[in-house]
Amino acid sequence: MHRTRSTAPHGNPPQATSCPAERPRAGKSCVERPHGRLLLALLATAALLLLLFSHTVANAQALLTDEEKAWLAANPHKLKLSFDRNFPPLEFLGPDGHFNGLAAEILKLIEERLGAEIIASPATDWPSQLRMLENGEMPVVPVIVHTEERERFAQFTPPYIEIPTVIIGRRNEEGGKVLSDFAGRRVAVVRGYVTEHYVRERSLDAGIEVVPVSNVQAGLRDVSFGVVDAVVENLAVAAHYIDKEQLPNLKVVGSTELNYSLSFAVSNKYPLLYSALLKAYAAIPPEELERVKAHWIRLDTGGLLSPEQRRVLRMTAVAGGAVVGMLSCVAWLLRRRLRKEMKELEQARNKVQEQGARLALVLDATRTGIWEYEPATGATYLSPEWHTMLGRLPGTIPATYAGWTSLIHPDDAEATTRQLDAYVHSGGRGVYEAEFRLLDASGEWRWVLAKGRTVRRDSLGRPERVIGMNTDIHTMRQHRDAALESERKFRTIFENAPYAIVVNRMSDGAYLDVNRAFLRSQKKSREEMLATAPGHYSDVSPEQAEALRNKIRLLGGMHNLEGRSIHPDGTVRHIIYSSVPITYDGETAILSITVDVTDRKQAENALKASEEQYRAIFNNAPVGIFRTSFDGHVIDGNPALARMLGYADRSELLRNLKDKAVDVYPEPEARRSLLDALLRNPSGVRMEFELQRRDRSPFHAIVNATLQFDADNQPFILDGIVEDISVRKQAEEQLRQSEQKFFQLFQLCPDAIVVARSEDGIVRDVNQAFIRMFGFPREEVLGTPLRALGLLAPETSLDAPLALLRQHGELGSHEFAARHKDGTPMACLLSCQMLRIDGEEHMMAVLRDITQSKKMQEVIIQTEKMVSLGGIAAGIAHEINNPLGIVLQASQNLTQRTRPDFPKNVEVAKAIGLDMELLASYMRQRKLDVFLADIQSAALRASAIIRHMLEFSRRSESRRKVCDLVGLLGRALALTQNDYDLKKSYDFKKIEVSLNIADDLPVINCTETEIEQVVINLLRNSAQAMASAKPPVAAPRIDLDLGATPGGIRLVIADNGPGMPPEVQRRAFEPFFTTKPPGIGTGLGLSVSYFIVTKGHGGRMHVESTPGKGTRFTIDLPVDIPPEATA
Amino acid sequence: MTGPCSTLLIVDDEEGIRRQLEAYLEDQDGFSVLSTASGEEALQRMAEHPVDLCIVDMRLPGMTGEAFIALAAARGLCRHFLVHTGSLDLVPGPTLLAAGVGPDDVFVKPHGAEGMLRRIRHILGDGGPTP
């Protein structure tokens, strides 16, 4: 009906159908008598009122201010509104594409009075409509509830209608409900409508599940198909759709306090439009509004509304005062007669309707449809409820047997039809009953229970008409199957679970059921167990147990609680349990699952202790501990590692190294080699690397690492420790250098060093000096006992010093007589130290050959003697010279005074009568003259000795100056050749002397007299030696060679005399050593010469001599005399 | 031997030296020889009898030979001095040089007296070259 009406042209809605069932109560309250005159009078009044209407229309424009008019004229493009295309009958998009519905018609009335047209266009949805109103894009919204929130952006006309919001449920629902009656049930609302907000606000307290739907139709359909239990929406729209959608199983089951007060709203941005529109709206006569509303709001929704609801709805529509009242009366009178005539029919129909409604109620409550079947003709009837059950519209299924069977599931079809046929053929006795699946509108199969009974038979008694019901048992079947399945599953889990599961009665905790795992753990049979008193297996009191049960009930279950239970052997076990309330055999009970975690708890404790231990090691280990991923990201590292790598602490390390894969390896290959080694040997490798610290300074480290693989057997985690060995490495390097130094020292040491094992004296090592000193090849020494080498001189023993060595561990500077391999004796100084080498006691002996220095020492001792003797000599020479002077002078005077030719002697002799000639002759004959000569000679010799001694000892006061070596040599030769003493003992002239002087001699500084003395000494020695040689030297000669050396000159004085035997040669420079007969040499000449050259001039002097061949003295004098050289 | 007689004074604390040298020089012609054992005594003697030449030991009791020579020269008691010493290393210093004593005037004991005699004659200008 509505559908038809909604397509009618605007402004001319058919009126007749809106009234008949509508106003019985209003009528009663008005006029009772009928009649033509009155009717005429009323018509006249109506005409007047019409005049009044047209006047009102004209007046509306007059009411507008100039400003408003001007605005309207200037802004035709602003005159537009948006409407909801889906809110019939209030507003909707008509089939012709125009704005349609109650609001559209009121808009028409407004436009007439405004003298302007407002263009309406459909909005996409309600929220966008609101948004456009707010921003002024669409200045007008025609159907809107006036709320405080919306006043922010819009102004509202007074409401033109108030529609209650109702609760619509299925027909079987009891009426008179309020929202709170839907606690725990599902209530649909249209998303974004004020109803949503309204219901949601109340849903929390009431415990309602709010189901938002996209539109009113969807909500109603969901109610009809049982998806939700109710929908809350305004009555007008709901009624429209119930009618349109053919949802006969719906009805209004309750009311809410929410009314839709619908107004026109104008955006705040257009105050002039609002004021103009408000005036135009106010100018609409109330009866005109009523008319329009009555047209669109249907109240005869076939039982949808209760009379009370209808009354409420009607009351909301009555807003018009006297005129409206009158008009109502007119309308009422006009329809009264018709009403009365129809009354009986109405009553009859109502009765049928009531019965139908009751049946429908029953059918709907059971989701049952009625069918009829005439076996003879195959005609079939399927009731609307039957269609609703399958979500289908009545009439969409052919009313035939085939139409019905076409919906039966293929698997069920044969059995179902056979059953029905069998029922019919068997005479239709009793009740036909079958279960099968039917295809519903959504394409799903629904289980249906069919029951039927034969209601009419033909003459032969065969069933002619069978009536029955199909009941939707789909959900029931599903539930039943699900329950069975659930029970089966539960039982399987219950019995086979590895955990103990028990069911206790809620009220007293008695055991209702226990599973096998529990029985196993308690070692009891089920019967024993169920007979056991509650609480037997725990250590809680009955009060505590009851409190716990209550808590489980109130909280709806408790999970993963820790507790203790008593094992049959008396031990207390740690358990974790979860308990939930369940219904068991109709009783409230508690199902508890218990896991014995005693072992796990112990393992956890052990693990915790182990973890703590590990953590302590991790934190305090002196070595770095790390964990990295295989690709090198640091996952963890201990404080020692952080310090080692130059970070303040562990967190800084992790922060900085997390994203740097291989930062500690200066060479990526190094890490690669570690990984390769780990892949070969994941259980552990040990490698040495040069790593780098944070500041890139390198350090040596030993890395011990292991490799773990992940579940896919891919290399995953590296664990390991890093030991910083840079210090050790450094020490090793120092040790190596030290060893090298020691080795060099050992080898290059001028002293012989031998290392021998204490136990047996086996030589382990000797140095080069040892080999040189003793003349043994190295091979011969190593591995030989020291004693076997024969290093000691005969009759020498080192037993005593070695005993000291063993006692004190060291021995210093022990002198002993040693022997060269060839037997040459040597003086040796021995120092020893005991050391442990490779765990064995060893003796390290240092041997110094002091043969030469011992000789030198002797020389020095003698020299010192001489020096001191010289000092004494200088002091006493003067004293000795005086007596010598007397001796000499006295002998001279004796000689003089016995001379016969000396006048004074002759004179004195004559005076006493002595013949001087006779005296002289006497003295000659008695050799007195020789005696006097001996005295003289002895005195002179003594004097010479003293002079030499003094020369030797005195400090030269002469200055060094540039030396005329050539002149010096000439003078020395001349002096020697004319030497008085030499002349006496041998003839120097027999000796051939050659003087060979090189050119380009460097100029040297020297004390000429001293060097001259040296040369004279040597020449004299040579001459004396050759003179005294036996046999005599055939052709004696002396060669003097003066030549240049780098940095000085060399003088060689060589003779071909008898030479010196080694022992003489060795002592040649020794003071007081002389080979000359007594009285010939002082023994000081060569030693004085030696000291003049070496000490006085910083030069060198040595002698080479071969007995029988000659002697050769070499003197080297430097150009520059060292400052320390003094003479 | 005729001609004036020169007076020589031997200053030496050693009596043997004085006697032997006196004997030797007295035997020569033209010398009158005196001797004293100390410088002080010599100065006193010279104050009574001027001398031509003094033969002076360096190491004397009391004033040294050098001091004596310096004093005698300063007082003009004697014009010539010979040094007669037991020391081998004596080189005339400024004091002796100032008194006219040069290296040739130094004689080291013991020595054959001929050299000294030649030097005396040379100094006193009565014959013989100086060696």
Features:
heterodimer, A: 1127 residues, alpha+beta, seven-stranded mixed beta sheet, five-stranded antiparallel beta sheet, 38 helices, 45% helix, B: 131 residues, 5 helices, 5 strands, disordered C terminus
What are the SSEs and their pairings?
The complex is a heterodimer of chains A (1127) and B (131).
Chain A: H1 2-6, H2 24-28, H3 36-63, H4 66-74, E1 80-84, E2 86-87, E3 91-93, E4 99-100, H5 102-114, E5 119-123, H6 126-135, E6 140-145, E7 154-156, E8 161-170, E9 186-190, H7 194-206, E10 209-213, H8 216-224, E11 230-234, H9 235-245, E12 250-267, H10 271-282, H11 286-296, H12 307-317, H13 321-365, E13 368-373, E14 380-382, H14 384-389, H15 401-405, H16 410-425, E15 431-439, E16 445-457, E17 463-472, H17 474-496, E18 500-505, E19 511-514, H18 516-522, H19 526-530, H20 542-555, E20 558-566, E21 572-584, E22 587-596, H21 598-620, E23 624-629, E24 634-637, H22 639-644, H23 650-657, H24 668-680, E25 685-692, E26 698-709, E27 715-724, H25 726-748, E28 752-757, E29 763-766, H26 768-774, H27 778-781, H28 786-789, H29 799-808, E30 810-819, E31 825-837, E32 840-849, H30 851-897, H31 903-912, H32 916-925, H33 928-953, E33 961-962, H34 965-977, H35 980-985, E34 992-997, E35 1005-1006, H36 1008-1028, E36 1037-1045, E37 1048-1055, H37 1062-1066, H38 1085-1097, E38 1100-1106, E39 1110-1118
Parallel strand pairs in A: 1-5, 9-10, 9-11, 34-36
Antiparallel strand pairs in A: 2-3, 3-4, 6-12, 7-12, 8-11, 8-12, 13-14, 13-17, 15-16, 16-17, 18-19, 18-22, 20-21, 21-22, 23-24, 23-27, 25-26, 26-27, 28-29, 28-32, 30-31, 31-32, 33-35, 36-37, 37-39, 38-39
Helix pairs in contact in A: 3-13, 4-10, 5-10, 8-9, 30-33, 34-36, 36-38
Chain B: E1 6-11, H1 15-27, E2 31-36, H2 39-48, E3 53-56, H3 65-75, E4 80-85, H4 94-98, E5 106-108, H5 114-124
Parallel strand pairs in B: 1-2, 1-3, 3-4, 4-5
Please characterize this protein's 3D structure.
The complex is a heterodimer of chains A (1127) and B (131). Chain A is elongated, with a radius of gyration of 74 Å. In chain A, the strands form nine sheets. In chain A, strands 6, 7, 8, 9, 10, 11 and 12 form a seven-stranded mixed β-sheet that branches. Chain A has 1127 residues and is an alpha+beta fold. In chain A, helix 4 packs across helix 10 (271-282) and helix 5 (102-114) packs across helix 10. Chain A contains 38 helices and 39 strands. In chain A, strand 28 and strand 29 form a beta hairpin. In chain A, 31% of the residues are buried. By secondary structure, chain B is an alpha/beta fold. Helices cover 38% and strands 19% of the residues of chain B. A five-stranded parallel β-sheet of chain B has the order 2-1-3-4-5, sandwiched between helices. In chain B, strand 1, helix 1 and strand 2 form a beta-alpha-beta unit. At the A-B interface, helix 30 and helix 33 of A face helix 1 of B.
